[in-house]
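Predict structure. Chain length: 282.
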Amino acid sequence: MQYAVAPTESLLDPVYQFEGDANVWRDWRKTATLVKHLTWRHLAARYRSSALGFVWSLLNPMLLMGVYTFVFNFIFRATVPGIPYPVFFLTGILAWNFISIAATNAAVSLVDSASLINKTAFPRLALPISAVFSNAINYLMTLPLLITFNLLFGITPTLSLLLLPCALLLLLLIALGIGVLLAALMPFFRDLQHLIEVLFTIWFFLTPVLYPMSLVRQNLPEGLLPLYALNPMVGIMHLVHAVFLGQPLPGTSVAIAVGGVFCLLSLGLWVFQRLAIHCSEI
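Prediction complete.
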């Protein structure tokens, strides 16, 4: 699956110019300004040729809500204890789509901006970060629609909604960690571009998006449950369901997710720091 990315050859005005090795931490103000600029360029490029523009960021989830409601109420009558299945599925799939699309866009950000990298000194890290941030803005725009959709099914917000910033932070950090890691590897291993969609599909089915954790505990052999729980997306999905659906929040699962997220992010930044400087040589 291909995702639109912003053309970057003519992005860098003098205000964004860096010198020397363009250190991302020393020049953090310029880096932040550049990330902001690239983020909006990603958003503008995504809807540039469409008549409705940014309205599509709202229409897409609304269409999904209608389709899922019809399918899961009249054709495939899946059930989740205490929660209408369309609400359960939409809550999870919107969060999952954010992570998968953001990480995929970030993964190809260096390859798609090769001409810019070869011509200009700037922190390479700004490219995958801006790709993730542009998708984060799209996800944020869907949340009021999601809450409205849940209200239509009788799911009212609880105090767990106060944990929304924590859920958003974990979603953002895991997308960044994966995206930065893949972005660093992509220029050296181009076959990754074909493997990413397969890997995310496998990960999707190993994450409780289509099914509740109660089915996992019921059907998965007991010896495999600890291995399944090591998937950081399990705890993140628990947190997302707790925030929007008021489900119980298992602390152990979320703690594992937090640890996994920071390990992924640390690994991604470490690999990126060592490989990104050689991208222009590929």
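Summary: The longest helix spans residues 126-152.
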